């Protein structure tokens, strides 16, 4: 079986986080080390979505812009950056970066977004913004990729293939097909657990899990593994990717992954190791 690369993820709480999603050429957050790690792949990124202004999520942006402008590659490719509306820190940082790179070879589009906004993507997909609960006073958002698909209208679901073909020949496809929205991926960003209503029916959940041990958590601004387990009693994604893990748990990653796989047999789990680049 050929494995198709979807994600390249680097994430270590407090140090760096970035998620590259290849099918739609998207980048979620831009922590330090990204340009050196991705190399020429940085030119393939078309849209960058920033969850919030904490430095472990944005420190790589200056280098990312500079490298795209100067390294060997498609330096003329446009880049769009989306960030949470009203995030003054990100605005100041973007202005600084623009000042330091006065002569950009590519077009840079910068746009603030908020809860409920929808950004069109290629391949019949779009991206929906939802607000998250992280640090007080910090604007933070999560992202959901949605695909428009078609299925048989309920009234035709008991018809045979032959009957359906005849109806299509006579009245066209739209007579039997309806459009619906399929949630493909939900990405939490730094946050307390995302509401099951938002995640429900999402194929893949990419959720932060800073704390493997609940007792280590002092403030309520990140998610613990116990909370993830609780969340998974309400929803059942096909695949769960946990990231933003604290490096104090380096030795517990394999054990935690094994336990999750045993407890939730229908779900495929990946825990992004704080010291490694995960290719999924
Ligand atoms: Zn963080
Ligand atoms: Zn944060």
Automatic annotation (TrEMBL):
It comes from the Bacteria. This is RNAse Z. It holds the Pfam family Anti-Pycsar_Apyc1. It comes from Marinitoga hydrogenitolerans (strain DSM 16785 / JCM 12826 / AT1271). PANTHER family: TRNASE Z TRZ1. Gene3D superfamilies: Ribonuclease Z/Hydroxyacylglutathione hydrolase-like. Signal peptide: none annotated.
